[in-house]
Input
Amino acid sequence: MAVPHSFYFLLSLTLISTHLTTIHGVFSEQSHIKLPSDQYLTEKLTHLHFYYHDIRNDKNPTIVQIIPTPKGVPNGFGSTFVMDDAMTEGPELSSKHVGRAQGLFGLSSLQDLGMTMLTNFVFTEDIYAGSTLSMLGRNPISEENREMPIVGGTGVFRFARGYAIANSVNSVSTPEHFVVEYNVTVYHP
Output
């Protein structure tokens, strides 16, 4: 649906006439902007289902440890990794590739096997090709149905927000090839 020119004119006029109010110094400023009706803004709810593959071998690894585990700390605390994993439609690495899971994660819990993950899901197929979703959150890797927030995206997923549910696929995983199933639900324009 095309947005009428009057919408852009009203938005520009509103932004120009907006006045900033200082609340607590330079760091904290608020802007009072009155936007036109949301009748021109619509959102979609999209559900994505895919698998990603951590390959840990000497020949073609997709996950590499960049900070080793410090001595004398439990649960690998402090270990940090970088990854560039294939994303596929099915749990087999030979199934259709739909993108790459690229990012960093570190073991960040002294009490359990919990990690902090920063992952960009980079899509290469269909209408999502060239678009990304960004996930940032805690991943308690020994639990089922691990929920992490989707905090943004690009392309088709610009302004995305939502959540991802991760599950390890132990039935097909090996120490050199770890498979994770993702169900992602996002709102986006």
